Task: structure prediction
Amino acid sequence: MRSRRWTAGGHPAGRSEWEGRDAARRRGGAGGGARLRPHGDDHTLAADGPAGAGVTDGLVRATAGTGYVHLELHEPARRNPLSDAMLAALREALVRVDPGVNTVIVSGAGEAFSAGADLTELTGTVADLGVDEAIAETLALLRRTPALTVAAVDGPCMGGAVDLAVSCDLVVAGETSAFAVPATRLGILYNPAAVAHWHRRLPRQTLVRLLLAGDRLDARQAYDGGLVGQLVPAGRAVATATALAERQAGASPAVVAAVKGLLVDLDEGDVDLSRWHEVRERLLAAPDRVAALRAVRERR
Result:
């Protein structure tokens, strides 16, 4: 398998798609120079044009904090389904995140994280491959985001939403959350590429329970099964993820991106250690490293 090369900032050299997206983000995002920046009282996603142009139908609400962005799936009356419009809004929000952000939090509004794929958009025919493709495109972008990505789950997390959570670097879940993938009951072999990714990330017994047995895992079972990284009291997932993001705010974005990139390579079995040693040496010589070391010393 061909190994990717990475720049000192942690982005893969020779991988045009990631570099292209990162370059667009550094210019301020796609389509008219949009970026995540303060707008109004709640710091929502805005474009360098009409107010609110960065939000697609209000389905993803973006809030900027110091060093982090919180993206909330927002269709609570329908339990935040991953409709085509919702996925498009999430992709738009991800490409507009400022490259200086160290953490991206994804959560769901209301009583659910997400109900998964929008069943009203499924046809029961081969045309449903389009739904797979839209989810896969969105989650590939999420996995390639150079920042730490955190799924803050409170309430049900179903079907494709489990895929979304597993595509994040860390899953923080409230103790009343639940996870299920009812693919077999819907007559679906879940996207093999997604299953391959889950197989790299999760123990086989957890996969069997979710995909083959069709079990509904409560938060404790998901934690014990390696799907959830941190279990918190009900209703505290976003607050916990935000506290983590605030602690991470002072870290070097270049180092965060490098660590993230190395972990992604390891996940995919596609790592060139000689290149990563070069990245490490460049980061060791970075000008802001002296200031970071001084700050750590002063806190001791």
Q: What stands out?
A: Residues 1-57 have pLDDT under 50 and may be disordered. Residues 5-255 form a domain with the 2-enoyl-CoA Hydratase; Chain A, domain 1 fold (CATH 3.90.226.10). The chain has one domain: 5-255. Residues 129-144 form the longest helix (16 residues).
